[in-house]
Design brief:
This protein is of the alpha/beta class and 421 residues long. Helix content is 33%, strand content 22%. An 8-stranded mixed β-sheet has the order 5-6-7-4-8-9-3-10, with helices on one face. Strands 11-17-14-13-12-15-16 form a 7-stranded mixed β-sheet. 38% of the residues are buried.
Length: 421
Amino acid sequence: MKKVIKGRPLSKCIGKAFYSVHKDIQSGRHTYYDLTGGRGSLKSSFVSIEIIYSMMKKENKNKHAVIYRKVGDTLETSVFSQIEWAVDILGVSHLWKLTKSPMRAEYLPTGQKIIFKGLDKAAKSKSIKVPFGYIGYLWFEEFDEFAGEEEIRKVQQSVVRGGNDFVVFKSMNPPKSRQNWANDYIEKEKLREDTLVSQTTYLTSPIEWLGQQFIDDAEWLKMVNPKAYEHEYLGIPIGNGTEVFDNLEIRQITDEEISRFDRLYRGVDWGWFPDPFHYGCMHYDSARMILYIFEEFRTNKMRNSETGKILKEKFNLGRYDVVTCDSAENKSIADYRSYGINARGAEKGPDSVRYGMKWLQSLIKIVIDPVRCPETAKEFKKYEYELDKDGNPTSVYPDKDNHSIDMTRYAMERVWKRKGR
């Protein structure tokens, strides 16, 4: 990488782990860039340099930038200081004017501005005005601190407008909980074609940039508390200890994989309102103890005749395909049989919930396709043990928000009743 700004090579300013991301941005391949990682991964340093570098290019002379932190009081000591560092490390301080009241950074040759804002209310984004051009760069630092997906969406709808070329950065150290909204958001973003998700760690950063003490501290934590090390330095959501399923792999299951599935199991959890009807189909690889869930259908207030028709027509359910259903509704099972669906009731019995759940937890992996099965993926990821009055996890499985989980237990009953005890 030989690009130079005023005599300082860009390769000396950003870590090697971000070279490909930089090239991607400069080529205009994506709009959204989600940067996650642990301490010392240089993601915030990279974003600040990338914004300064890009704004100074002649073809971007009409683009301004807005940088958000959730709390306005944290701006000066975080992103504002980060931009100060970026203009200094790039050797262009003489071309930029930074003021704290109002908090702004101005590129003197063109008058382009970087605006720093706290986000106590997303609606305030509508009041942002720039003297010319449009806001082409948007950065949410410490992304997980914001209020949620709706707040982020409102900001983007207000800011990302008036132009044809935008770059939106979201940077964070992933929260510990796998159920945290920000972790869930990034997982969904991986499915978007206009989004690039990058995960880096201190292991990809030059040692001389971090200092030996940083490395020693990381290695010490790795030795005395491996889980804390994974979260703090590798940026892995390790969980809070309340998750029922720590064996999940949420990813797209390819058509090629599905074409090889030969041991299919189907289940139904009946519902009307507010509880939903939930159907699912899965494949079990017994040799590797991996369950693949790749079909779902969920609805409310739909008659048995209507759901039965959908299962037969949309999911190609044949008369010999066994569907194991919640046995609490014998009439619904009889209805399905009259429609030509090979429905049978789950046997249940004493401790059937505990046995079925323990078997699911014992699997090496439960792979769920979040595109084909969004509700299933959401429920499995967010399902947590009940807490006692002091907030400590118990061994009790809550009987709520678990319709796809019940469906899976029913579908796999023939397997876990044979092997799971």
